[in-house]
Every structure is written in C-alpha cells, then in structure tokens.
Amino acid sequence: MTYELSDQRESGVKWRNWTGDESCRPNAIARPASLEQLAAEVTRAAREGLRVRVAGAGHSFSDIVCTDGLLVKLDRMQGVLDVDRASGLVRVQGGITIGQLSASLAQHGLAMENLGDIDVQSIAGAISTATHGTGGRLRNISSQVVEITLVLADGSTLQCSAERDEEVFRAAKVSLGALGVIAEVTLRCVPAFTLCGIDAPAPLEHTLERFEQLVSENDHFEFFVFPHATDVLARANNRTEQPPRPRGRVAAYANDVLLTNHAFGAFCRLGRRLPRQIPRINRLVTKLAGSTKRVDRSDRIFASPRLVRFTEMEYALPRERTPEAVRRVMEMVPLRRLAVPFPIEVRTVAADDAMLSTACGRDSGYVAVHMYEGMQWRPYFEAVEQIMNELDGRPHWGKRHFQTAQTLRARYPDWDRFQAVRARLDPEGRFTNAWTDRVLGPVGVVSAP
What is the SS3 assignment for 170? Predict the structure, then answer.
C-alpha cells in the first residue's frame, strides 16, 4: 500500500496546549488517520532526521509535547475498533478522547471502572502520563490497559502485553511518549454502572482527621479546599442500584456552566485584579458552595466541564502523608502572602505496577494545586514542590514541576529498568525533546542517584 504524505503535513504552524501557555512551532505537524499512515509518518521523520513528539488533546500543562521536529497529532485516530462485551475488552485508536470512549462504551453496556474529572484528554495521552481518578481501592487509567500497539522509531509496530513481554508492557503503560507512538489501546472495561454523587461542605480539620476513614468508606472520595478557608467541599461517589436520573439540559447548564464555570471565573478575574482580596473571596466562594446530590451514569458523574483556564501542579504521595501535605500547603500560602484564587484538590488511588506510574508500588494520595490564567504561578508551585520533596512526592507527568532525571531516579524503584527498555526501543532518541532530555535524561544514560 502506498500512501502520499505531503497533503497530510502542515508546516510553519504554531501548536499550543489547552491552557495556551505552552507552545512550539514544529518543523511539521502530521495528522495521520490510520496505523499505516502513522507508521509512514514516523518512517519519514527518521529519514529526515527529525525528532518526533505526539499531541493527544493538548491537556498537559508542561512542555512535554513541544518540539522543533515532527509533531504528530492523533485527532484523526479516534475510532473504536473492536468491542467484546462478554470479556469487557475494547480496542480503540490512541486519539479517542475519554468522553468519546465513555459514550461509545455506554452503547455497549460497558464503562471504565475509574476516571478523572476531565474527559477531553485522549486515551493515549491519559495513560502515557498516569492520569488518574480517585478511589482508595481503584488504580489509575493505565492500569485498565491490557495491550498497546506502539509505532517504533523505524516505523515498525510492536504489540505490548504482559503475555508477550512483561518488562516492555510495564514500561509502555506509562511511557511519556518516550518509547514510541501509541496507535491503539486495548482496555479491560466493566459492566456499566450508576453512581450516586454527593457534594457537601465539611470542616477541613475534621476531614483531614478522618481522611483514611472517608477513603475506605467510599468508592470514590475527594475534596477541594481554598487557601484561607476552614471548610472543604467533599465529594463522595458511590455505586448504587438506583436507575440513572440525568439532569435536564437547563439544570445541567445552570450548574456546570453558569455556576461552576462562569461564576467561578468571575471570582478568579476579581482576584487577579484585586489580589489582596483573595482571602475574602475564597471564604465567600466556600460559603456559597452548597450540597448537591446526583444519580447518573458513571462517566457523567466522574467528569465535569472545565471552561476556566488554569495551569496546574500535582504530586503523588504515600497515602498516609496526604493530610500532612494539605496542612502544610494551607499554612504556607498565607505565610508567604501568595495570591491563590484556586482550590487545592485531594484524591487517592491504589498502587499499581507500571514502572513510571506515580502510584507504582504504593497506595497514593494526590495533592493538586492550580493557578488562574494570567497570574504568577512559579513562586506558589516552587513552594509547594519543596513540601512535596520532603514527603517523598512524585510529580504528575502531565503537569508542571521542576524535577530532573537526577532528582527523580531515586523516587522510582524501576527507573533504571524503564531506561533500559527505552534504550532498547528507541536507541537513537527519536522520541525525545527538551522535556525528556531534562526529565528522563539522554537515551542510554543512567543518572546518578
């Protein structure tokens, strides 16, 4: 089969991430629509001596995607290729978004067992960065993968599974785009289920004292707390046998768009203009947050629209250290007089075995901090990272951090094993950029601990 590539490439086009604060101007942007086209693009890049990076939905907050070589966009590879309802195995193209995937699964009576609260990411991007939801007994999205089809640096394809090569599979499940391009993914899904979601305010200190209990008593538990506030918004989602009761369009728009996004955006803009008023604004927003109850299809409970632009840092910690981390961040913000109009988000997941998963080998708590667009984020994030370093934190790969290969190696028991797989699959460093050079180090080089 011969495929003409020239009409599928764009040159001189600037790429931006979702937030709009990371961008690059690649030598070319390719948008393949099939495995064959993708393989041809990578082969051509190798022939031209271009490094290759891959963009899913652009929902990472760092420069993980940015390149001056070939940028491959997967937005034309969003198909559902096979569904086996009996086994729950579903094969999809890597560019399908989580929202598209969830809608398709629902038509077959299936669902993902756990998801995050944003569904616009591509499945390839989500698993590559160890994106997660919340649930003390549930693992992150990459743990639901049973097979991955990679396009390697020479344009060949490799089927990765535990049965074929466990070492490669454990590396490929959270690969950071450093092993090849994820063309297809096979996921183990579960029968569709309904969640009852309850949001309710609660005292911060009481929530932290009962943190382990709240995690163990609920299928999915998380909370949000604004700096300078004394109450949290606690969110508990639990399976129920009740039938789904979807909200009407008007009610959904009023809550998800007008209140959750437009009103909150207005408060953020006010805080950006009047930073000294942020403590008062944050306490007001906390007081305005009431209790809500929803019963609906699982993916509709998990995900909510995000229209307010922000940038983010998130750290995974040994779960027992999560309350301490929250207390220290809450104490640090007023001490340093930082202007922070966004809440801190706290979640949990169970341990998994992907080599570079942030939850590899340990049950984990996640503490995420955000900054509204147009506001200075670096001092806040640097101060938070200092706390997380002291608590054995691992940074979320798709979000901002200041770590290097030298500072990260000791935090991952399988770091050197991942590097060995990387050197084996991409010996010439085709899938590298400034981010991988900084965060993973050069291919074939093991960083000193």
Answer: helix
